[in-house]
Design brief:
The protein is mainly alpha-helical and about 190 residues long. About 70% of the residues lie in helices and about 0% in strands. It is globular and about 50 Å long.
């Protein structure tokens, strides 16, 4: 069922097929977490937001237009869920368990990886929310500007501007080498 297209999976879910919803959850669980982190900045809150968004999506699956892909609609549900969670101010503060605490790890590599991850997350957290979401969806999830515009409820040009300004701010914060522009990708998308 992993190769079934999303509109077919959505129809199956609308008819009560739990396994079809499971496939959608598997497809969007990791990327949903990344998107929720872009809004919330805390992995525990991001996990809660993703779980709640999947529940809301299942409850509202009949609202999805026939033939529509699940992904962009789910990201709108997720963004709304994450923003509501943030507004309710139920965000928690947790100490992270260092990656080096796991068995068989390389402490030096874990430290470098953890520092890089933390630097990127800190830099992303400093971006305005729309830039943070646009950069996350474009660079990490591979969505087009048209799809991002639909998810964020903006114009395509605004999506492009959010990605451009977000990338520029990240480059200034992290350095040029840590966030290279992908010219091939831009040319490819410009031809669409």
């Amino acid at each position: 069922m992993d190769v079934v297209d999303e509109p077919t999976l959505v129809r199956r879910v609308q008819r009560g097929d739990e396994a079809a919803f499971g496939v959608l959850v598997e497809r969007y669980l990791d990327s949903g977490f990344v998107a929720a982190m872009a809004v919330l900045g805390n992995p525990h809150d991001a996990e809660d937001a993703v779980q709640n968004a999947f529940i809301r999506a299942l409850e509202r699956i009949d609202q999805l237009q026939p033939g529509s892909p699940f992904g962009p609609w789910f990201y709108r549900v997720l963004r709304s869920t994450a923003l509501n969670l943030r507004r309710r101010e139920v965000l928690r503060s947790h100490e992270e368990i260092p990656a080096s605490a796991s068995m068989g790890s390389n402490p030096a590599k874990d430290l470098d990886r953890g520092m890089t991850r933390d630097m990127v997350l800190e830099a992303l957290a400093e971006l305005p929310e729309m830039q943070r979401m646009a950069v996350t969806l474009y660079d990490l999830e591979g969505y087009s500007h048209r799809e991002i515009a639909g998810i964020l409820g903006t114009a395509v040009g605004t999506s492009r501007a959010h990605v451009h300004h977000g990338r520029k701010a990240l480059k200034n914060r992290l350095g040029e080498q840590s966030f290279p522009a992908n010219e091939e990708e831009r040319k490819d998308e410009a031809s669409r």
